[in-house]
Amino acid sequence: MPSPNWNAFAGVALIVLVVLIALARASQAMFVDDEAGGGDRREPAHRDGTAQTAAGGRAVGRGDGGVGEAETVADETTRRPEYGPFESAADYPNVTNEVTNPATEAEFTPGTLLVNVALSQGLFGVVLVVAAVLAAIPADALGLERVTVAQLGIGVLLGVGLYAANEVGQRVADTFGIDYDDGLRELLTPDSLGGWVVLLALVLPIIAGFEELLFRSSLVGVFAAGYGISPWFLVVASSVAFATGHGAQGPAGVLVTGTLGAVLASAFVLTGSFLVVVVAHYLVNALEFVVHAHGDSSR
C-alpha cells in the first residue's frame, strides 16, 4: 500500500477551502452592492400574486407579470436573502445576483436552484474524494474506517439537539435585535412533492457530505493524522473557516454557525466518525426546511 501523500491532499483541500470562501464572499458582496444601488429583491415567480413594495421604494408585482396594488411589507423586503444554519452564499453560486435581475427571475424556480446547488457542491465533493484516493489518505484519518448503527444513532441525537439549539439561538438573536438571516428558504423551499424529494434525498445530503468532508474530515482528521497537529486546535481553526464562509448570515449567524461547526468538529474528534457529523449536519438543514415550511404554510 502506497504511503499517504499528505502534502498533496492538504494542498487540494486548502485550495477548495479558499475557492469556497471566495465564492461566498463574492456572492455576498454582489448582493450588498445591489442593495446599495437601491435594487429590489424579487420573490420567485411561483409565489402568490400579491405585490410588495421593495426596499428601493418601487412596487413589485408578482404572479400576473405586472405591477399591482402595493402592499408594504418592510420586514420581508428589506432583508437580504436568508441562509440556514449550515448554508452560505457559496452553497448557492450566482443565486443572489441572478434572482435580482427581472429578465431572468422566471428562470430560477426552486427546482433549477436546487439542481445548481447539487451540481456545484457535488463537484467540490468529487474533487476532494478523488484527491483522497490518489493521495492514498487512510480511511481512519477521514473518519471512514468503520460505520455502525451506534454512529447513526449518535448522529441523529446530535442533529436534533443542534437544530433545537439553533432555534433557541435565533430567538435570542431576535430578542436582542441582532442581525440574523436564517435561510434561503423563500427561494429554495420546493413547491412540489418532486422538489421536496430532490431537496431531502439529493441536495441536502450532498451539502452535508461535502462540507463535513472538507471542514471536519479533511481540515481536522487529515491534518491531525498527517502533521501531528492538535485536533483541538484544528477544531477551532476549522470552525473559524466554517463561520467565515457563512458571513452572509450577519453577525449572529456567523457566531451561531461557528459554534455549531465547533460542536460538529468536536463530535468528529471524540467519535472519529464521518457518519456521525454528516447525519447531524443533514438533520439540522432538513429540519430547518421542513419545520419552517410547515409553519409558513399554516399561517
UniProtKB/TrEMBL annotation:
Domain CAAX prenyl protease 2/Lysostaphin resistance protein A-like residues, every copy: 196-287
Which residue ranges traverse the bilayer?
A: 113-135, 147-165, 193-210, 222-243, 263-284
Highest taxon listed in the record's lineage: Archaea
The UniProt annotation puts the region (Disordered) at 34-96
Keyword Aminoacyl-tRNA synthetase carried by entry = no
Bias class Basic and acidic residues marks the residues at: 38-49
Query: Keywords of this protein's UniProt record, alphabetized?
Result: Hydrolase, Membrane, Protease, Transmembrane, Transmembrane helix
Q: Name one GO molecular function term.
A: endopeptidase activity
The residue ranges flagged as biased composition, category Gly residues, are 58-68
Q: Which Pfam families match?
A: Rce1-like (PF02517)
Its GO biological process annotations read: CAAX-box protein maturation; proteolysis
Q: Which InterPro entries match?
A: Rce1/LyrA-like_dom (IPR003675)
Q: What is this protein called?
A: Abortive infection protein
